[in-house]
Amino acid sequence: MTAGTVVVTGFTPFGTHTENPSADVVRELGAAPGAPGGARLVTDVLPTSFARATSRVRELVDEHEPSALLALGLAENRTVLTVERVGINLVDARIPDVDGVQPVDVPVRDGGPDAHLATIDVRAAVAAARGTGIEAETSSTAGLYVCNAVLYTALDAARAASPGTVAGFVHLPPARDLPLADAVRAVRAIVASLVGQPG
Ligand code: PCA
Q1: Which domains does the chain have, with CATH numbers?
Q2: Known catalytic membership, residue 17
Q3: Whose CA is nearest to atom 8 of ligand 1?
Q4: SS3 letters for 75-105?
Q5: Most ligand 1 atoms within 8 A of CB, residue of 74, 102, 108 to mutate
Q6: Which of 12, 92, 145, 170 to mutate to test the pocket of ligand 1 (most atoms within 8 A of CB)?
Q7: pLDDT tens track of the chain, all 199 residues?
Q8: Taking CB atoms and a 6 Å cutoff, what residues make up the pocket around ligand 1?
């Protein structure tokens, strides 16, 4: 079996942030020669917009039918890399998104299941990140903002349109807690773990 296509996404800055390490990691991954684990890598930086990020994720799944989709985002209040276990069908935005939209207590998808468990091997992803020498943990909440909406939507889209696709989400702490080079190495190792190959 070949490693197939892996889609890795980051997010634009949002709120008061002028940078988003998830976009920086995605740009570095896309620019580096040799995709992790021999996969065909597709990278994209999503706008931190509920409407545009979720529709783009659906397009990426439909267009590439990837073997794996890994979305990355910034968790401003965490100090270590976390691999999310679940996306839930609820939005409660504490700040407006980049389109100025601030949904409160609405579903990600009307009528969708309450939650989707991540379909990547979460423990293997944590182990892969730790194997590069950094701290990493599982997380049981991706929040109720755009990151959770993207994880839920990726899992929802994969289930409907591309059942061979596993999907998951990694929250990165701010760069002061995880320098860019370390984050890139850890994410490369996670991507390699998704396709069952050494990094
Ligand atoms: N973090 C936000 C949205 C975009 C990002 O990088 C979140 O955790 O929902």
Answers
A1: 5-195 (3.40.630.20)
A2: no
A3: 147
A4: CCCCCCEEEECEEECCEECCCCCCCCCCCEE
A5: 74
A6: 145
A7: 456 899 999 999 999 999 999 999 999 999 987 777 788 999 999 999 999 999 999 999 999 999 999 999 999 999 999 999 999 999 999 999 999 999 999 999 999 999 999 999 999 999 999 999 999 999 999 999 999 999 999 999 999 999 999 999 999 999 999 999 999 999 999 999 998 765 5
A8: 11, 14, 20, 22, 48, 73-75, 143, 145-147
Distance in Å from the first CA to the final CA of the chain: 17
Find all residues with CB under 8 Å of 46, minimum gap 6, and list them: 9, 10, 11, 12, 52, 53, 56, 57, 71, 150
What atom in ligand 1 is closest to the CA of residue 145? 9
